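Extended Data, panel c. Modelled sequence:
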Amino acid sequence: MLSDTVKKQIRHGYDKLTQALPNFAKRKAQNYLVAEIAKVLAGEYDKSRRILVAEAGTGIGKSLAYILAALPVAQANNKKLIISSATITLQEQLINKDLPFFLRHSDYKFSFTLAKGRQRYCCEQKLLATQESSEQEQALLFDERPKAGDKALLKRLSDAYLAGKWKGDRDSWPTPIANRIWQHIVSDKFSCKRALANHRQCPFHRARDDINKSDIIVVNHALLLADLELGGGIILPAPEHCFYILDEAHHLPKISRDFASASTNIKASQEWLKKLKPLNQHISKNIHKQTTITPCLNLLESGIELEAELKKIEHFFRDNAQLLGEKSQHRFQLGELPDTLINIMNDVEFSSKKGLKALNKLSSIIDDAIQDDDIKLRVAEPLLIETGLFLQRFENLNSLSKMLIKERSEKFAPMAAWADSENGELSLHASPIEVGGLLEYMLWSQAAGVIICSATLTSMNSFDYFKRQSGLRSDDGTQYLRLKSPFDYPAIALIIADMVNEPTHADFDNELADKVDHFIEDKQANLVLFASYWQMNLVADKLAKKYGQALLVQGVLSRSQLIIDHKQRCDKGLTSILFGTGSLSEGLDLPGHYLTNLIITKLPFAVPNSPVEEAHSEWITAQGGNPFMQLAIPETSKKLIQSCGRLIRQEQDKGRIVILDKRVKTKRYGKGLLDALPPFNIQFEQNNR
């Protein structure tokens, strides 16, 4: 239960913070959100399942609300507070603005840090090994011979690290580090082991110490999932010791699905398997123990078996060339592979498991040799790095094979499974279709408490779509809260244009160019959102001569330069017209005079052209459902709300929204899409024909 002491702390904290904020306006919705977060985390609704799904409209101030409510409850319950987001922008806002402000203007004593994944840090030993290793050792470490420029960069990185001028994280290096270089020095769970004394001061482990000492840890969803997939408590504190705030949670299902997928390039896999023999020779040369004989032999055997099995996969697709066809891609219906491939993948699973077991045994033997001083560290380090690289590769191959041969259950969605060929190189892929069960197993059932929040969690005025995506239910103890934005939406006109053609009609493109031209406002800040690049460029070409430098097109300029040029024109009182696609419909912040006229050319229906989306639609159909109503409409509703949200970012923002898609008034689902939007002043353009 929420104690009186904690209640007083929250009230006092709220008073102090609001006094420090200039022009602060008290909002009932924000107060209610604070109260509900505190009550859920304190277990007032359900002691065994402390989960709240909260849709908090733009302008409520949810970040202030969840820090204010969750921190005192976390401290009272001796829990860590993990704040996870989908975007770097929000992480930077929390670390550089919100949390420092809260620390300065409240009585709370707390520390906070930004946690990054292990892959954002270099391994000290790997970095130094690039300067010390022989040509033979480098051949094992590098997939291709390093270029002169790569060697020079590695030398600069090493020198800066040893001089204390670089902390070893990728993000703090002043220029981008190419993946082909970074992959050879990146910290990994196999070779960068804290149990080894010379790794305890590695960049990742130093950062891990900061995490352990901090009261609030800011992360991204991908890192959170990576830790949970390892069982929790590896990178971040264990879930049972944490209260989680999942902000921008509408991204979580897709990020979870992408995270749980696996793929392999057949040719690349064959290439690295050829390097197992020199790895074995390297181990046998430096570890003089009889115990290495059996795992070395098993490792070589598994490599030979896997090479043969991968060749069989190539032969299968060569003999069945019609499968890949012109698209160079083939998706297996309902995730079911033909018997021939199933048999091969069963062998891949068996052989990769054998290789994993052998590598883990060899890694343990090397660890023991280090502990017993039977091998010098400078000799052992390259061996650990090499075995670590192969462990990752075997683990990926094993995960993929398990997913592809997983037996189907009528109760659960199948895997999406597909093959594709790019530049003649064959790859196999697998991905879960739905991740609700995964999230329940890893997070919802394990965490001490979870607050799930976003400005857009409902679709068509319901949480049902998000529940299906995330594995939550109405009867499992989870609480649901929907708070409307305080903005004056009725003052914003939403105009439904009088269009002759639907977007699927051949004449729509010509009509669209004319209508965009008609609704562009002179001396104003215009944003026109398109459903595709080709349609955007088509309209841009037709209007380029008329608008000249006022027309700023995504793709012609970088996103950052696009915004800079747009704001400069707005500040000068000039007409500015931003043309963008769906990527500008979310996360684009243009308050005040930087956006006054928003034009949405088409309803943001996503074409199910990815194998995973196609597989999901196929499965729903097989279950007797309607994928258009169950997937397409809810997703479109969410995206349309996000698109309209570009116009009004602050309470004083004004302007209008125009939709150039007649389906919102001619199709049965159109009314539902409009009803799910904030209460704009909806107007229908009069027929002037």
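The CA atoms of residues 459 and 634 lie 5 Å apart. This feature is highlighted in the accompanying rendering.
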